[in-house]
Amino acid sequence: EPKTFDLLHSHVIHPAGAIGAKLAAEIGLPHFISEHWSNLAYYFDKNWFRNWGKDAYASAKRIFVVSEFLKGKTAEFVNDSSKLAVVPNVVSANEFKFRPSPIGSSYYFVMAAKWNRGKRVIKRPKLLIKAVAEASKELDKPVILGIIGDGDRVPELKKFCEQNDVHAQFHGFVSKKVIASEFQKADLFLHGSEYETFSVVIAEALKCGTPVVASNVCAIPELINDSNGILVENKLTPWKDAIVCAMQTDYDKQAIAESFKTKFGYEEVGN
Predict the structure, then answer these.
(1) Which in 8, 90, 112, 154 has the greatest CB count within 10 A?
(2) pTM (2 d.p.)
(3) Distances in Å between the alpha carbon of 121 and those of 165, 171, 256?
(4) CB neighbours (10 Å) of residue 77?
(5) What is the 3-state secondary structure (H, E, C) of 228-240?
(6) Any idea what DSSP says for residue 95?
(7) Contacts of 241 (CB under 8 A, 6+ apart)
């Protein structure tokens, strides 16, 4: 016996949203779309099925986007922007929470991403490695750089660290529990990017109380303020200066974690 439903939900416009809209119309249900895709502009300009996407956005009852930044971008492709609502991504508080760590004899910085080559350069690992190398010359303790994540660029990044005398620990692909543990030990989380619709990894670091130095692009400024980090232009000198400045700033790591304690959890996002 067929089940009956009250609504149909699709996650991301292509291909789920475009097809979900047709299915919802066929069975007569309201259609809801959640959106976090960074490729919207290219899709609506180049993709053969872009008209399906336009129809899906036009007929959707509501479109949930993960940030104010993405709300503005999505509004360019929606005939009625009042149907847009911001619902952030979920970051689990079970793993990502504050744990005090002892002051070490060296500084520990962490980077985390999928380190793959692609058609578009999104992540900027070499810029950060070079900035760490330059900042190390001005800091009062040696620096260890933890690099989390796998991908086809890892051998290249290992070689680049060696060439720039950066003491790097490559952790590869690890569990969320291990990522949280590395954030809790870290003095800084570094995230160099050209495009972010939300940045879950920055939210994860902040929930652990780790100060963040990150690119001043897209949705990232929605997470960073003077109490928890520094936003920076994607050039070497600003990155180097920001790292040095961050290590001269007395961040209250417990207060950072506390300010994000009730943000992005399953219950908060669910409600």
Answers:
(1) 112
(2) 0.93
(3) 24, 22, 30
(4) 17
(5) CEEEECCCHHHHH
(6) T
(7) none
